[in-house]
């Protein structure tokens, strides 16, 4: 198994017909969820608010192709109707069915299609590597790769799958993640740990800074193992989220390189994250990485506008990792060897570390380079 | 005259030799200035802090090709040395000489070059259309067009020239603007009015969200006319800044279209500006404009993540201006005619108006589309 079907009590399947897909995941348990912070929230997101408050689900139904976003009161009613369809095929009640959608904004759900696809998918629900793959593909839009993660803890496992090409696809930039654990965790504790894990993973991925109306991360604990050490469970949950988040960054539209930006020796983790995200969002940094150009001035200039206080004349900046790691700036003095710096930026993953020398906290953010293909995909698309 | 040489008491000239240019502008008067808010500030910016506090200048010396940024204490000393050079050729004292630089970050000024270029330029200082053009070109880097503005008020004039390809050029994304008026204005009042005009013009231009280490806007009042009505002077100053700001947006690297984003019926001007800037900064919106794709969902989704409270189900959205203006969304209901909407996005200028229906304030922001050429320029560049 690569992800969720490694968790006892999880069954899955999915279908993809042209642009329209549907996935079902059946798993009874305690639930925590993190929803989009965009003020414009899709129908299914509105429908999830009280379900997450209740803290229990028996399964989820997810469709791709239509986001059911900016569809008003009817959109909310359609999301509830989708939960009814999910409840019928899974043999439970609609309040125990999670709903999520991804696709074009401003169009209403085709409930007949969803009913037909759900009826097709449900009989196949099973726990296998093929099943988790089908579920992953049923919710993909412009994603080029399935995204799975599985973390084995001491007496428990945490697994997840997600879709997302970095909140950037034409009209369908949604990030959906479904995590499962066999550990026994109460809903309030799960919610707190999920929120922290999301803050340190999905919320540190920037492809183009756009936040979808439909983003959701759900974690279901099937409670089939005993209770677990909160610290080790929390760490496993964060590792699982981070793995998925990095897969999203690497699959950013048009991306050729994953960028990992570490900001260390910062006054606080939050400030380190702010600086890291500001750098990784900079189109100048993203295009420099694309061109394998060690244009370190752009990194320091982006850090300077992040709104975090540090002394620019005390920072150090490194490029690359392992044996290819080279200093660009040390304690405010330029020490770059341009040829070595350029060499450190080759390959599929580019790592920078900026030491602010203003404290002891650190944070990492992930992004991707900006290429002509991003323009082509998003500019040539016609509504 | 197209700009500053229409103001009594202003003389100018400039030179451009390959990547390296130098401009001199002589004009005695009261001075106000707005400096970059980037924490990483170039040497010349540090040197300007006390000169703006003093509120008087006799002239400015500006070089292009080297930003003298991230150059530490020596960078500051070199900026002061450049002021000494300017004072020598203009026959005044260094504390009355403004300095500004634009170009590559992390390299020291070539003071010999600056001394030679200043000696070459100074004898030509004069007040003519050719002179203001030479001064504009001497400070250009990747700009494709000179940027001039001239506003005639009731008994006074305000004029300016600036350089800037939208804070986005490789290593030299600086915005420099020099404004002149013949009106009599005290320094504190001029500072206040300039700050407001900059907030409503240059601070509402977004090409890629990067803020230069070297940005400066200076306004000199030569006091050769009488005192003026503060309201009408303030309006003229803002109009002049806006004209220059729009020219910067239109000259954004790789841009094919100017985008004007109006946000109206907002709770406050500041909130309207925040929403307008968030939209205009969105790569999804910028690429949609490039492709003339009326992808209005991207505009509303960007507005939703701006951090301003409004009811998404009450907004209206329009595209185009004049006879081509068409509604896309009205009071939360989708009314778009895709063909008409697409037609409204053709041409060199694309206008959107988003009515939040949450108040009476409004604000406008300006930007440009995002094209393959931006990637080419910024990705292919090699440090």
From TrEMBL, chains A, B:
Belongs to the ArgJ family. Signal peptide: none annotated. Its EC number is 2.3.1.35. The lineage of its organism: Archaea, Methanobacteriati, Methanobacteriota, Stenosarchaea group, Methanomicrobia. Pathway: Amino-acid biosynthesis; L-arginine biosynthesis; L-ornithine and N-acetyl-L-glutamate from L-glutamate and N(2)-acetyl-L-ornithine (cyclic): step 1/1. Coiled coil: none annotated. Substrate binds at residues 141, 163, 174, 253, 378, 383. Catalyzes the transfer of the acetyl group from N(2)-acetylornithine to glutamate, forming N-acetylglutamate and L-ornithine. Its main location: cytoplasm. GO terms for biological process: L-arginine biosynthetic process; ornithine biosynthetic process. GO terms for molecular function: L-glutamate N-acetyltransferase activity; L-glutamate N-acetyltransferase activity, acting on acetyl-L-ornithine as donor. The active site is at residue 174. It comes from the Archaea. It catalyses: N(2)-acetyl-L-ornithine + L-glutamate = N-acetyl-L-glutamate + L-ornithine. HAMAP family: ArgJ. The record marks 173-174 as: Cleavage. It is found in: Cytoplasm. It holds the Pfam family ArgJ. The record marks 102-103 as: Involved in the stabilization of negative charge on the oxyanion by the formation of the oxyanion hole. Heterotetramer of two alpha and two beta chains. This is Glutamate N-acetyltransferase. GO terms for cellular component: cytoplasm. Keywords: Acyltransferase, Amino-acid biosynthesis, Arginine biosynthesis, Autocatalytic cleavage, Cytoplasm, Transferase.
């Amino acid at each position: 198994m690569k992800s969720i079907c490694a968790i006892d009590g999880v069954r899955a399947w999915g279908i993809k017909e042209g642009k329209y897909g549907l996935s079902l995941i059946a798993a009874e348990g305690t639930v925590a969820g993190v929803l989009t912070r965009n003020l414009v929230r899709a129908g299914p997101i509105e429908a999830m608010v009280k379900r997450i408050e209740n803290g229990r689900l028996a399964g989820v139904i997810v469709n791709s192709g239509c986001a059911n976003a900016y569809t008003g009161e009817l959109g909310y009613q359609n999301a509830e109707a989708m939960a009814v369809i999910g409840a019928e095929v899974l043999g439970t009640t609609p309040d125990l069915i999670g709903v999520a959608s991804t696709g074009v904004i401003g169009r209403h759900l085709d409930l007949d299609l969803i009913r037909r696809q759900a009826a097709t998918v449900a009989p196949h629900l099973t726990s296998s590597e093929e099943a988790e793959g089908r579920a992953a593909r049923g919710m993909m839009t412009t994603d080029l790769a399935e995204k799975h993660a599985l973390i084995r803890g001491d007496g428990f496992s945490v697994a997840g799958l997600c879709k997302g090409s970095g909140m950037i696809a034409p009209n369908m930039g949604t990030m959906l993640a479904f995590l499962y654990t066999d550990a026994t965790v109460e809903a309030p504790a799960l919610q707190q740990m999920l929120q922290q894990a999301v803050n340190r993973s999905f919320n540190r991925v920037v492809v183009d800074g756009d936040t979808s109306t439909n983003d959701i991360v759900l974690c279901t604990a099937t409670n089939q193992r005993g209770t677990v050490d909160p610290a080790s469970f929390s760490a496993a949950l964060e590792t699982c989220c981070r793995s998925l988040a990095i897969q999203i960054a690497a699959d950013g539209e048009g991306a050729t390189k994953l960028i990992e930006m570490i900001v260390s020796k910062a006054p606080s983790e939050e400030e380190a994250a702010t600086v890291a995200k500001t750098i990784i969002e900079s189109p100048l940094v993203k295009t420099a990485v694309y061109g394998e150009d060690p244009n370190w001035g752009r990194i320091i200039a982006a850090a300077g506008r992040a709104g975090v206080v540090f002394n620019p004349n005390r920072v150090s900046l490194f490029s690359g990792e392992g044996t290819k790691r080279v200093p660009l700036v040390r304690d405010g003095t330029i020490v770059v060897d341009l040829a070595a710096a350029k060499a450190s930026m080759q390959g599929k993953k580019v790592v920078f570390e900026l030491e602010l020398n203003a404290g002891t906290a650190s944070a990492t953010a992930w992004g991707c380079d900006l290429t002509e293909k991003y323009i082509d995909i998003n500019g040539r698309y016609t509504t």
